Design the sequence.
């Protein structure tokens, strides 16, 4: 007692007593403040186990509510490291719950099976006061590089690196990332899939999440219902079935893409490419083989295609350029077509859209209704048919056929024959080396510098024709109209047998005409020069004028 | 020599004896300059004393006298050390017992604090949401649900009719999202702070909101 009284009076024990009291206060003052969570305690428990895998044996892991990381290592060991985390209203409860979470590791003849077992079956059958415990289990597993892998996870992510054995991975509600793999089957729902580097064939299936696959040595197959798909640097064939998400395919052996409600962008495909899309734009370029495109309610664009192109679309524009190898066939409706630099033949048809073609080196057939046609630099001839649209053709090397109604026709620099069928539209042709046959009505026909035979049948429209000196032989000129005038210019020195007839009009000639037989006011028959070629001019209710061509 | 008050600063700095004499003569009739002159001289003397390190014969005498005068007023420093000397008088057994108890209390306190240390000190893992983050997530979820309810009411006529393939596609997607949301909500109810569940649920809400917005855009188009 003396000692105690001394200590209290003195001071030696004052710090000790203070410390003791402070410690006691800490000890009995209740729970500490925990990061703003006065009622939540968290515990974590580590799990470590290493087992040896036999040759040919596989690793299988099943987990949920946490992430799985797997990485390939040298050797035959499977090194399992897991962390169990539990958060609960008290530390005791968290501890208790953590103890109930089991990590089961089984070795069978097939290999190692790792499974997380949660104590969740019983807890639905009682009413608890306060928040349920929260928990997660994360894995980090090292395994032999060549071992097959079977991984299942939900409500968490999976990441694998350097596992070259066949991998079968299924995940849901989390991301799936695979790097440096072998052959693989990857499934996910409600989460993304990212694959970079695979030595074999890969199959990817996702229901709602984006997919990105790159650097695959084998073939790639991707199915994704609601998510974008990107595939890069695929050595083998690529098959993509998407929907409601954009598809991008770059650097692939070949491609087969089916999607809807999203765009398709494919480039640098070494072989053939097939694209079927609905309600999305299609843009393809640098295709080594053929391209087959089917689309609707979307625009189509293709360029630098080395094989044939078949394109069928609705309600969308088609633009194509630099098709060097095969023919191009386009079927469209309610969309314009624009083609440029086509090495083979072109067969393009649309309704309610314009067609424009430049530099098509094969034969060209263009059809539209309710749209104009424009074509230039077509060495092997063209057939252009439209209703209710104008036609403009320039620099055509072969025979040219143009048909329209309710639209004008303009043809220039035609090296072959020109045939125009029109109604209710004017026809203008310049520099035609071959024969020209023109039918129209209710509009004028103007033909200049025509080297071949000329035949014009018009009604209610004027005719103005300038014939060139024929390169060889005799080129007849037959012009017929009514209720309008005919004016024809013929080259000097070329002989014609002239028959000109009109009623209610005047016939005049700048060139001397040697007439024989009857000469009436509405008829003139005779020869120009030495005669030879037929010059038949028939009109009613219009004048006829014959002049020199300069 | 004629000097004025204006010259005094210069003379203080580097004035000649003649100038000093003239300034003193001026100060005799100028109170302001006289005060300035007196203050300067006081300062000069103090400055000289500061440079004078030689011992003053009276210094120690003054210090000693002052100590003697103060000694009865304050306790002697030696008395402060006196209480340390009682320890030898306490039996060694008591000393050991008291020290042991002190160490025991400290150890228990430290152990309790360690075992009940705050959650943020467990590690930096983000698998389970802390309370603040959980509140933020729940707030965001509530905001999403409210926004989605409004959008869903607006889009309902189009989705029920699904007159075009596009709307039928959106309808299908929304059904898939609803299924995922229901699944996630059920799991989040049983595992409320699991970060993956909550963030995935947020992502699904976000996607549903975005899809409903697209439906309404399609309707406008």
Sequence:
């Amino acid at each position: 007692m003396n000692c105690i009284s001394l200590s209290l009076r003195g001071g030696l024990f004052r710090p000790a007593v203070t410390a003791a009291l402070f410690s006691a206060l800490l000890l009995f003052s209740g729970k500490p403040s925990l990061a703003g969570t006065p009622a939540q305690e968290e515990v974590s428990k580590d799990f470590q186990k290493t087992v040896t895998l036999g040759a040919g044996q596989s690793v299988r892991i099943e987990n949920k509510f946490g992430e799985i990381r797997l990485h390939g290592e040298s050797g035959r060991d499977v090194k399992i490291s897991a962390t169990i985390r539990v958060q609960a209203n008290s530390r005791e409860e968290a501890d208790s719950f953590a103890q109930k979470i089991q990590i089961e590791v089984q070795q069978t003849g097939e290999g190692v099976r790792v499974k997380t077992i949660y104590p969740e079956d019983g807890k639905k059958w009682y009413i608890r006061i306060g928040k349920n415990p929260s928990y997660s289990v994360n894995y980090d597993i090292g395994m032999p590089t060549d071992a097959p892998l079977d991984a299942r996870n939900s409500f968490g992510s999976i990441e694998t690196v350097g596992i070259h054995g066949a991998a079968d991975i299924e995940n849901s509600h989390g991301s799936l990332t695979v790097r440096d793999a072998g052959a693989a089957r990857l499934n996910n729902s409600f989460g993304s899939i990212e694959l970079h580097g695979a030595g074999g064939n890969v199959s990817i299936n996702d229901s709602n999440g984006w997919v990105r696959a790159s650097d695959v040595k084998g073939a790639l197959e991707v199915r994704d219902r609601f998510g974008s798909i990107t595939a890069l640097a695929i050595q083998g064939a690529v098959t993509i079935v998407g929907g409601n998400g954009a598809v991008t395919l770059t650097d692939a052996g070949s491609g087969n893409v089916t999607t809807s409600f999203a765009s398709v962008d494919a480039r640098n495909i070494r072989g053939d490419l097939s694209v079927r899309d609905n309600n999305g734009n299609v843009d393809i370029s640098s295709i080594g083989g053929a391209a087959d495109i089917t689309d609707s309610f979307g625009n189509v664009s293709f360029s630098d295609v080395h094989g044939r192109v078949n394109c069928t679309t609705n309600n969308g524009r088609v633009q194509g350029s630099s098709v060097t190898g095969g023919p191009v066939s386009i079927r469209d409706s309610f969309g314009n077509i624009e083609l440029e630099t086509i090495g083979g033949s072109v067969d393009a048809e649309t309704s309610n859209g314009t067609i424009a073609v430049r530099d098509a080196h094969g034969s060209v057939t263009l059809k539209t209704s309710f749209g104009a046609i424009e074509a230039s630099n077509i060495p092997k001839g063209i057939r252009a048919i439209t209703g209710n649209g104008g036609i403009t053709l320039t620099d055509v090397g072969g025979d040219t056929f143009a048909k329209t109604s309710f639209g004008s026709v303009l043809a220039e620099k035609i090296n072959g024959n020109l045939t125009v069928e029109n109604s209710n539209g004017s026809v203008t042709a310049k520099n035609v080396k071959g024969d020209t046959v023109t039918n129209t009505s209710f509009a004028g026909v103007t033909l200049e510098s025509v080297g071949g035979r000329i035949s014009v049948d018009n009604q209610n429209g004027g005719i103005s024709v300038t014939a060139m000196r024929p390169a060889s032989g005799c080129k007849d000129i037959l012009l017929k109209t009514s209720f309008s005038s005919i004016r024809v210019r013929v080259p000097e020195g070329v002989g014609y047998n002239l028959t000109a007839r009109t009623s209610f009009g005047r016939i005049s000639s700048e060139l001397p005409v040697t007439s024989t037989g009857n000469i009436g006011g509405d008829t003139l028959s005779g020869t120009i020069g030495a005669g030879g070629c037929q010059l038949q001019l028939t009109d009613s209710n219009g004048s006829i004028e014959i002049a020199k061509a300069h | 020599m004629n000097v004025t008050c204006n010259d005094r600063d210069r003379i203080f700095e580097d004035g000649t004896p003649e100038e000093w004499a003239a300034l003193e003569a001026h100060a005799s009739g100028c109170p302001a300059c006289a005060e300035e002159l007196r203050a300067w001289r006081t300062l000069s003397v103090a400055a000289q004393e500061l440079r004078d390190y030689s011992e003053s014969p009276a210094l120690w005498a003054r210090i000693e006298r002052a100590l003697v005068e103060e000694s009865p007023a304050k306790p002697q420093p030696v008395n402060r050390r006196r209480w340390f000397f009682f320890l030898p008088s306490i039996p060694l057994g008591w000393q050991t017992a008291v020290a042991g108890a002190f160490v025991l209390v400290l150890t228990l306190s430290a152990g309790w604090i360690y075992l009940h240390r705050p959650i943020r000190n467990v590690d930096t893992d983000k698998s389970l949401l802390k309370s603040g983050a959980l509140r933020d997530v729940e707030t965001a979820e509530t905001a999403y649900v409210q926004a989605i309810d409004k959008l869903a009411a607006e889009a309902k006529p189009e989705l029920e009719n699904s007159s075009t393939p596009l709307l039928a596609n959106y309808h299908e997607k929304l059904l898939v999202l609803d299924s995922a949301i229901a699944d996630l909500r059920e799991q989040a109810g049983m595992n409320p702070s699991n970060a993956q569940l909550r963030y995935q649920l947020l992502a699904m809400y976000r996607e549903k909101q975005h899809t409903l917005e697209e439906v309404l855009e399609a309707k406008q188009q």
